[in-house]
Amino acid sequence: MNPLSVPEPDFMKDEEIVLFSDSVAKWIDEHAPPEAVQSWIANSSVPRELWTKAGEAGLMGLSMPEEEGGMGGDYRHEVVLMRQLGWKGADHFGISLHNAIVAPYIWHYGTEEQKQRWLPRLLTGELVGAIAMTEPGAGSDLQGIKTTAIKQGNQYVVNGSKTFITNGQL
To answer: Are residue 84 and residue 106 in the same domain, yes or no?
Structure first.
């Protein structure tokens, strides 16, 4: 099911990946049929419960280690999820950003306290990872961003504005 008619990379032919791809496709067919996706587009948001359903189905933290609460896969599993969402027109579901960017940042760079506080709930879908990089006048040019986070006592004061926050509505 490759709409670009280009050869599949060898890793996509691995039996485990093929089986996983088939199961992801079935999950999307069940939980994100075309009529639901049209509703998401009209409402500019996927339903919140889709995140917990994805967590229950094991679609959160695909490439995170099992000992951290993830699924113990690797980036190929994230690619499968992204491809299936795209092929089925359900790419409005921001799970790829959540899985492949937000959770790994916390895992790689967070303190132990931050990991314990955030990762378990991110990996079940209780929490939704979001990212805010765009600003008026800067777009997504990270060097042009003016927002600051200044530590004052035991908290940070954030000063600035964002024009788009991926998954921010959730």
So the answer is: yes
